[in-house]
């Protein structure tokens, strides 16, 4: 639960054990040395809560900063426009022929002033971000990527370093039979029936993996009955001992491991092509960590890391200038998930990890890490386009409404047309955001070679 070991860890007299972990077999006499707020789980919860409380508030939106000055500026421009045209008309600053027959100089000046007030549109600026975020998070949910708000979406598009947990994230998280080698001539089904007879009475995870694999040879039977083993004994730390009728000879060898999730290597390769650095941090031993990292293609490894060490590593990377995402599934990953700029939890993980994360990968597929980052980048590209349109519209529309073209072309913008233009600008921003509904994940993921777990 804490270290992420794929295999049970043998404990002897005097060893420390963690509350909430499972004793696979035998009897333990335990002395509680840390209780209440000193327990491992309480310390992890405290790390999560304190990190959340100390986290910086969401960055104030660009539109909010502009609106702070935009509205008073428009009011000043509107009044200035009216005043300039009114004084120009009063002191014969332009020919009388410019004034339409249906109005006087005051009314002409007032029309220019009102048009400036009406055409100026803070609405488009205000809609630029929330509409895109709303559509982006909705699309993410339909893709199996649950994004908890705009802040997570905003941070994800900047990610250039991802820290992966090992057990249950890069790997399946449970032992699986991956290879079989028979040393004597016999039918594979018969061999597994005899091995299953030995292991069926054991509660060890490896034994359960063997029995589950043996059941594949009896798929037509709902509750298969195995040959009876004699003198069954469970030897703590070593396995089981029993007698089955194989003439007392070694007839086969099984290879059992916690294998990589399908497509894990390809996902790491695609992240490298996206210029995103991948790091593996695990509580497991260095031997297992190095083997998994080599297989998946990760160069930087940190093993035998406690939960607080994972969070410290994330903070070190942030201090080095990286925008860090953490991908994990366990209670021990929660402090790092909170410390990261973006925490991504595997959907099949623990409730604490899911609660601590900013993004939940509901399908538990590693490829969805790429989908989350790509969707975030596409969403913020759309937001920038919205801002460009909203600002461009105002920069062009306000001078035209103020009558800049009137002395040269005689063109003036009546308030009703200015109002229609203002509404059209808001609608165009919304429509631009709605185009995100047609988002498709990167084509490289469609051609991703999702390999099953190889068994032989």
UniProtKB/TrEMBL annotation:
Q: Which SUPFAM superfamilies match?
A: Calcium ATPase, transduction domain A (SSF81653), Calcium ATPase, transmembrane domain M (SSF81665), HAD-like (SSF56784)
Q: What is its main location?
A: membrane
Keywords attached to this Swiss-Prot or TrEMBL record, sorted alphabetically, are:
Copper, Copper transport, Ion transport, Membrane, Metal-binding, Repeat, Translocase, Transmembrane, Transmembrane helix, Transport
Q: Which domain of life is it from?
A: Eukaryota
List residues of the P-type ATPase A domain.
1-48
Q: Which InterPro entries match?
A: ATPase_P-typ_cyto_dom_N (IPR023299), ATPase_P-typ_P_site (IPR018303), ATPase_P-typ_TM_dom_sf (IPR023298), ATPase_P-typ_transduc_dom_A_sf (IPR008250), ATPase_P-type_domA (IPR059000), HAD-like_sf (IPR036412), HAD_sf (IPR023214), P_typ_ATPase (IPR001757)
The cellular location(s) given in this protein's UniProt record come to: Membrane
* GO annotations of cellular component type: membrane
What PANTHER family does the database record attribute to this sequence?
A: P-TYPE CATION-TRANSPORTING ATPASE
Return the protein name: Heavy metal atpase 5
**Organism, scientific name:** Actinidia rufa
């Amino acid at each position: 639960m804490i270290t992420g070991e794929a295999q049970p860890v043998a404990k002897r007299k005097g060893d420390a054990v963690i509350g909430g972990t499972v004793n696979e077999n035998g009897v333990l006499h335990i002395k509680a040395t840390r209780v209440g707020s000193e327990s491992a789980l309480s310390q992890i919860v405290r790390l999560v809560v304190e990190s959340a409380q100390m986290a910086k508030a969401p960055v104030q939106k660009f539109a909010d900063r502009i609106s702070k000055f935009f509205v008073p500026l428009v009011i000043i421009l509107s009044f200035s426009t009216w005043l300039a045209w009114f004084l120009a008309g009063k002191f014969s600053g332009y020919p009388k022929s410019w004034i339409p027959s249906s109005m006087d100089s005051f009314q002409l000046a007032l029309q220019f002033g009102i048009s400036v007030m009406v055409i100026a549109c803070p609405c488009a600026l205000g809609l630029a971000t929330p509409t895109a975020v709303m559509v982006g998070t909705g699309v993410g949910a339909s893709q199996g990527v649950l994004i908890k708000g705009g802040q997570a979406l905003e941070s994800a598009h900047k990610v250039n370093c991802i820290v992966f947990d090992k057990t249950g994230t890069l790997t399946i998280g449970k032992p699986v039979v991956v290879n079989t080698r028979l040393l004597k001539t016999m039918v594979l089904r018969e061999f597994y029936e005899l091995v299953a007879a030995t292991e069926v009475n054991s509660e060890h995870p490896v034994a359960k993996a063997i029995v589950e694999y043996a059941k594949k040879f009896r798929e037509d039977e709902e509750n298969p009955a195995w040959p009876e083993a004699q003198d069954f004994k469970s030897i703590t730390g070593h396995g089981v001992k029993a007698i089955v009728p194989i003439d007392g000879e070694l007839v086969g060898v099984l290879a059992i491991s916690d294998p990589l999730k399908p497509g894990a290597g390809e996902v790491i390769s695609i992240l490298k092509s996206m210029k995103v650095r991948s790091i593996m941090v695990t509580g497991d031993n260095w031997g297992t960590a190095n083997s998994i990292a080599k297989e998946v293609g990760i160069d930087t490894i940190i093993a035998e890391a406690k939960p607080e060490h994972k969070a410290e590593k994330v903070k070190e990377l942030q201090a080095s200038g990286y925008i860090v995402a953490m991908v994990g599934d366990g209670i021990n990953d929660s402090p790092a998930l909170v410390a990261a700029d973006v925490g991504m939890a595997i959907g099949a993980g623990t409730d604490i990890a899911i609660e601590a994360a900013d993004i939940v990968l509901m399908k538990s597929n590693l490829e969805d890490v790429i989908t989350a980052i790509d969707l975030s980048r596409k969403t913020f590209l759309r937001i920038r386009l919205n801002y460009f349109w909203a600002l461009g519209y105002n920069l062009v529309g306000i001078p035209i409404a103020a009558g800049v073209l009137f002395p040269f072309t005689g063109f003036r913008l009546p308030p009703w047309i200015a109002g229609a233009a203002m509404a059209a600008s808001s609608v165009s921003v919304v429509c631009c955001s709605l185009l995100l509904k047609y988002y498709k994940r990167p084509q490289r993921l469609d051609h991703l070679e999702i390999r099953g777990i190889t068994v032989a």
